[in-house]
Write a structure and sequence with these properties.
By secondary structure, this protein is of the alpha+beta class. The strands form two sheets. The protein has a five-stranded antiparallel sheet with strand order 5-4-8-7-6. The chain is 29% helix and 33% strand.
Length: 203
């Protein structure tokens, strides 16, 4: 725990582990224990917010394994992975995404919106919460539904890193929105496309 939370062994031995868990997460940890002790070698993995020695919060991925039946261990074995920096980076990304001056969306391979920001909702006349689940095809002007099909195919094949194009969309009131879109592919470790990131400028 010294690396993750700053405590020496002498400061934690003999103390209830819940004392180091932030109060709002203690109930979830307590509820996990009956499942954990119900069977030998049972394990539980959860994200838990802990209190660092300096008083700051740390988000740790905590894996607990029941080794009570192991005569050489006779304990619940805990391992931790510090997710604090990752969570902070995610929070910064979310803030930048939400507050971008242009419309932004994550779109799956079928053209369905996974995530949209406030500005895109304003451009199209929808609450941002109403956009996930809709497809870019249903939001497109009927004459422009397939306007980016060729570019998307090239993007997915890796022939181009991104593309920019102007096309028409329909606002919620039926009026036409001309937008310049820039689309890039987000890929996994194997290079397969996970989703598209699209930026929309009202032109």
């Amino acid at each position: 725990l010294r690396r993750a939370l700053g405590y020496d062994a002498a400061e934690v031995i003999g103390r209830n582990g819940l004392m180091f868990v932030q109060e709002e997460d203690r109930r979830a940890v307590q509820e996990a224990f009956p499942r954990l002790v119900a069977a030998a070698d049972a394990s539980v993995t959860m994200r838990v917010r802990f209190v660092h020695k300096d008083g700051s919060a740390r988000l740790l991925e905590s894996t607990l394994v029941n080794r009570l039946a192991d005569a050489e261990v006779v304990a619940i074995v805990c391992s931790f992975r510090d997710l604090t920096r990752e969570e902070e980076q995610r929070a910064r990304f979310d803030a930048a995404f939400d507050n971008a001056a242009v419309g932004m969306a994550h779109v799956d391979l079928d053209g369905r919106i996974l995530l949209a920001n406030r500005r895109l909702g304003e451009m199209l006349g929808y609450a941002r919460e109403a956009l996930p689940g809709r497809t870019m095809f249903e939001l497109s002007h009927p004459e422009d539904v397939d306007a980016t099909s060729e570019e998307r195919a090239q993007l997915h094949a890796g022939a181009i890193p991104h593309f920019t194009k102007r096309k028409r969309y329909l606002r919620s009131d039926g009026s036409v929105l001309w937008a310049q879109i820039t689309v890039a592919a987000e890929r996994d470790a194997q290079g397969l496309v996970r989703y598209e990131t699209a930026a929309f400028e009202d032109v």
